[in-house]
Amino acid sequence: MAYRGRFAPSPTGPLHFGSLVTALASCLAARSRQGEWLIRIDDLDQTRCRPGLDRTILHTLERFGFEWDGEIAYQSASSEHYRQALDRLVQQGNVYFCQCSRKTVASQATQMGSEGPIYPGTCRALGLNDAPGRAARLRVPDRTITFEDATFGPQAQNLAPELGDFVVRRADGYFAYQLAVVVDDSLAGITDIVRGADLLASTPRQIYLQELLALPRPDYRHIPLVLGTDGKKLSKRDAAHPVDEKAPLEGLMAAWRFLGQPLPETPLSLSEFWQWAPSVWQPENLSQQITNDDK
Ligand code: GLU
Hints:
This protein has helices spanning about 15-30, 55-65, 80-90, 100-110, 160, 175-185, 205-210, 250-260, 270-280, 285-295, and strands at about 5, 35-40, 75, 95-100, 110-115, 115, 135-140, 145-150, 155-160, 165-170, 190-195, 220-225. By secondary structure, the protein is of the alpha/beta class.
């Protein structure tokens, strides 16, 4: 199957160095395999998106010399597809509706998972109808989901004890990222997902949803996170670090170095960089970088 990758920024802040690194890695992964590279704007949660930022991000990518294939996809235009996927999960009996507030969950939970309190199952057997203010939760199995990440190696997670039944449509009506991303990637025919390592822990949930919805599983490569000087992840909302559009080549070379890639023998122009980079792209350097960091 022909390679098809994507970059999926959320328009919650201007492009920062961490997203530039992810954009570059996903683009080169595709171009080095003569594949396509698509862009999707993850503007599902309108409460977090800032109007006009999609244009700003696309403009910045253009200034850096990125070229993408096809039309830009917007999650906000895909609700009907998410609804159909949710209906299917409901019909299968894998989703139930839940009226617990975050506070109730926190006060009733007896176990902490990797992302907060594990849902104690309060509404699991109540058979509640769908109604405004109710979330849709996915029942998770007590079994380990495994996958091979191209950078981080073999991964395993048992969703029940580590995470619990998770929300696929929030009480405020917004579909959850986990469901949307699975539907979107399959609609776009994405074969390979290259994205930040902050989403490594989300992948088993997405793989489980792909199984339930009978969707193909793409290959995954997660990119080590660029951390701020305080050791914390650089947030896209941290507008203090947008990339400098006036120095695109410097930004790209910094991202290239971060990705552990071999330096060019002579200085390159922006267009020369884009011609050269896909042919020398060595994704295996990323895993070596992690091993070095661990030492
Ligand atoms: N929109 C997500 C983000 O900006 C990325 C989603 C994905 O690559 O799956 O962090």
